[in-house]
Specification:
Keywords: Amino-acid biosynthesis, Branched-chain amino acid biosynthesis, Chloroplast, Plastid. The chain is built from 7 helices and 9 strands, in the order ααβαββαββαββαββα. It is an alpha+beta fold.
């Protein structure tokens, strides 16, 4: 690069500011954008989910995954949200969600050991030649064959996000006719076992 241009870039205020920002991001994990998992307890009443989704939409927050169902308490629903953001921005979103009168409790379980599960149903086009290979792959991933037709096969896959993504990618070599996924659900581990460690061990097992 031309020496004069190098000097200009070095002294350019915008370049200096960008370097400062990069340094701050490296030093402060709160500035790093990643997927956050929120576990929300709310009164099971009509319109609660609409109000939550509306608040997130107004803040320009993209919901990557959402699952809702009854909790262990009568009349209380548990909502699991997965959304991207920095720790700082997600903290602000949590403060806003608490302003919704029906919201009772919110936990950001992103960095907490949790049991996490998703469900995926895959309908795959099969033939006499491909069916054995698909069933063999399903067996490796402990997926269930829940329907078999003359030209298709439907699999049920239950596991963490990593397992679901891996088997979906492996099945791309065949023709996927239909696919549906639930949102992620999670519960904190009382055992405090490191979930990330278990996930890595699981993925290594599948790879073998």
């Amino acid at each position: 690069m031309d020496q004069k241009l190098t000097v200009l870039l070095k002294d350019n205020p915008k370049v200096i500011e960008q370097k400062k920002l990069l340094t701050l991001v490296e030093e402060d994990p709160k500035l790093v954008t990643k997927k956050h998992t929120l576990s929300v307890l709310a009164e099971d009443e009509p319109g609660v989910l609409t109000r939550i989704a509306g608040l997130l939409a107004r803040r320009g927050c993209n919901i990557e995954s959402l699952a809702i169902g009854p909790s262990e308490m009568k009349g209380i629903a548990r909502i699991t949200l997965v959304l991207p953001g920095t720790s700082a921005s997600v903290t602000q979103i949590i403060k806003q969600l608490y302003k919704i009168i029906n919201v009772l409790k919110i936990d950001d379980v992103t960095f907490i050991p949790c049991v996490e599960r998703e469900l995926m149903l895959l309908k795959i086009r099969t033939s006499t030649e491909t069916r054995p290979e698909i069933i063999e792959l399903a067996t490796v991933f402990r997926a269930k064959v829940v329907d078999i037709a003359e030209e298709s096969l439907t699999l049920e896959i239950v596991g963490d996000s990593g397992k679901v993504v891996v088997i979906e990618q492996l099945m791309q070599k065949f023709e996927i006719l239909e696919m549906v996924k639930t949102g992620k659900i999670s519960l904190m581990r009382d055992s405090k076992i490191n979930s990330e460690y278990l996930r890595n061990i699981s993925l290594q097992t599948y790879a073998l």
